[in-house]
Amino acid sequence: MTQLRPSTPLLFCFGLGFSAKATARAWIAQGGRVAATMRSPKPMPDGVEALPFDPADARTLQLLQEADAILSSVPPAGDGGDADGPLDPVLAKFGDALGSLKPRWVGYLSTTGVYGDVQGAWVDENSPLQPISARSRNRQAAEEAWLSLPLPVHVFRLSGIYGPGRGPLAQVKSGTARRTIKPGHVMNRIHVEDIAGAVLASFERPSPGAVYNMADNEPAEPATVIEYAAKLLGVEPPPAQVFDPAAMTPMAASFWAEQKRVSNRKLTEELGYRLKYPTYREGLAAEL
């Protein structure tokens, strides 16, 4: 894991979901401090100071101004399917305050969904953005809004996130896993600990305006990954289901409507980050 500089740097997180929480833990483990805004009270990891999502709150504004690094994992409005449009909630509330700050580093967690469907071809950070779903179009708009700020912004486009308590193992354990068969449909994944590790690596090697794909080394069919998870747990995989978009929720159908292979070369070569879990096999085995 990257070692932070010895001045107990402060990471200010907008939102503390699965990825940001892992990043906060890694940051604290390396000697840093973390503060995070929350819309509603939730349990916080040890060492994280909870703050209201309110620019009028004195403590929130104070720590935002003191932050060495700022990380936003808050999705744009409309990610849940509502009609509020692509407005970024953080920029809507804190835009004026952010414009006057001088952090060393700023990060925004986005999605590889902004590439849209390329029918299984490889994409990298220079590939055209052609999002299909409203959620992904909103993400593209949010990326552009963050990158337009007078701040050292870095964008991370995340593939399918998994890790302890979330992903194939948890789904197989809980009986909610689906082994959908659609031959040739592959996708990348990224372990939550690699998200945290790459964020820390970027803080140590800032490159304002940079965009990084967060993806593993091996795009794989979802059914194959579910089968591997079941094998690790010593149980039978769930019954195979033929792909049928008419029987799926709109959210699930949109997931299967896109296919791409995501290159992580910029992350591993330019940033120099070495994946802890280069494929789903190492990541799932480590969870056991």
Order of helices and strands: EHEEHEHEEHEEHEEHEHEHEHH
| Strand line-up across the major sheet | 3-2-1-4-5-7-11
| Cα radius of gyration in angstroms | 19 Å
- Strand residue content: 15-25%
Q: What are the segments in which pLDDT stays under 50 over at least 5 consecutive residues?
A: 80-84
GO molecular function, one term: 4-phosphoerythronate dehydrogenase activity
Keywords: NAD, Oxidoreductase
Protein name: SDR family oxidoreductase
EC number: 1.1.1.290
Layout of helices and strands:
Layout: E1 10-14, H1 18-29, E2 33-38, E3 48-52, H2 58-66, E4 69-72, H3 89-98, E5 105-111, E6 122-123, H4 134-147, E7 153-158, E8 160-162, H5 168-174, E9 179-181, E10 189-191, H6 192-204, E11 211-214, H7 222-233, E12 240-242, H8 250-256, E13 261-262, H9 265-270, H10 280-287
Parallel strand pairs: 1-2, 1-4, 2-3, 4-5, 5-7, 6-13, 7-11, 8-10, 9-12
